[in-house]
Amino acid sequence: MIVRTETIDQRIDTYLNDFQPDKIVVVVSETSEKLCLPKLQIYKKVDNIIYHLPDGDEAKKLSYCEDFWESLLRENVTRKSLIIAVGGGAVLDFAGFCASVFMRGIPCIYVPTTLLSMVDGSEGGKTGINLYGTKNIIGTFTEPAAIMRNVDFLQTLNEGEILSGWAEVIKHALLNGGTLMQMVQKGCPETNDAEAWMGIIRENILFKKEIVSEDFKEKGLRKLLNLGHTLGHGIEAIHFEDSKINHGISIANGLYWESLLGFELGITDVSILETVEKLVYPIYPKIGWSELEVEPMCNLLMHDKKNHNGKIQLSLLNAIGNASFDVEVSEAQLMDFLSKHATALHDSED
Ligand code: GLY
Q: Of the residues 60, 171, 172, 222, which is catalytic?
């Protein structure tokens, strides 16, 4: 359900009237507390407990989980209590994970405040925290009690945050085709265009729900949602010190580079590659890897948890609205691809 600010409070109230929690714990990040929480009525209820997290992935640490669980114990939280997570993907992942294991599971409502978390992270029941630099390595598959998306929160985001979520919108459009593809081809709306966003977010969620309902635990079909993420995560990792290269820029580039890989493997038609280029490069900078980064990037990708039999496994597009998962690429093929395009990228960056 996607709503405007005035109705999100009503939905929360309806839920509270039905569930009658004995206690409410609101989890926020620094930014969501400043920009989003004051817009919600739950903010004004003084008996609610507010738990504060730092922004971004910094929150997704075991030490914060321990501290949070200790606070829940101190506050006598029970299975009849309710957690409400207000924030981007990191807040939802953290709160969802902590709630899913505390007392073997207490209810958690998600109020996603970023485009990325509205179209992707909030849907599908993945929760998780990071450990020793490995992302989402500790987590559960647990659906939240409810998800309340509010397009008005998009107006609190800067351009980089919108583009971060837009990359996942492009990914869903490439996988789904149809209405979503038509919407994406019209370009990224202004943040205050609530009607356009409600349509786009609705289509994204319908598509993701369809996939997740068939394969909740990512045994097969759900792997399609990893489109662009294998090379995208490689790019994100080698540029991790460059704050300008955010998740969205890496994934958008991952979508392009994986289409090129698919083309070179004879899986993806050149027209698809051109479509991806037209969707990605008018708005995202072209990012790849240098010759020096070929080997580290290859090593990184060869150690991905999704690999099988010493080969990387990725999802590649056959056509718009049609992709295959578990496409195997050997280390030699990967190395060839990375080496061949390292030089080309240097040329285009100059
Ligand atoms: N973000 C991909 C998934 O939820 O499976």
A: 222
Between the CA of residue 8 and those of 46, 86, 272, what are the distances in Å?
19, 12, 39
**What CATH architecture does domain 2-156 belong to?**
3-Layer(aba) Sandwich (3.40)
pLDDT tens figures, 196-249: 999 999 999 999 999 999 999 999 999 999 999 999 999 999 998 888 899 999
Q: Is the dihedral of CA 232, 235, 238, 239 positive or negative?
A: negative
Read off the DSSP letter of residue 72.
Answer: H
Output the CA–CA distances (angstroms, integers) from residue 102 to 21, 30, 54, 106, in the order listed: 16, 24, 21, 7
Of 188, 186, 300, nearest to 240 (Cα)?
A: 300
Residue 212 CB neighbour total at 10 angstroms? 20
AA letter at 165: G
Cα 139 to Cα 33, 122, 212, distances in angstroms: 25, 14, 17
Annotated domain spans of the chain = 2-156, 160-189+214-349
Quick one: pLDDT band at residue 345, thresholds 50, 70, 90? very low
* Residue 278: CB atoms within 10 Å: 10
Q: How close is the Cα of 17 to the center of ligand 1, in Å?
A: 32
- Report the residue among 92, 110, 123, 126 best suited for mutation to probe ligand 1: largest number of ligand atoms under 8 A from its CB: 126
The pTM score is: 0.93
251 C-beta closer than 6 A to ligand 1: no
**Domain 160-189+214-349 belongs to what topology?**
Dehydroquinate synthase-like, alpha domain (1.20.1090)
Positive or negative CA dihedral for 212, 218, 219, 225?
Answer: positive
- What secondary structure, in 3-state letters, does 205-242 show? HHHHHHHHHHCCCCCCHHHHHHCCHHHHHHHHHHCCCC
Q: Is 218 a catalytic residue?
A: yes
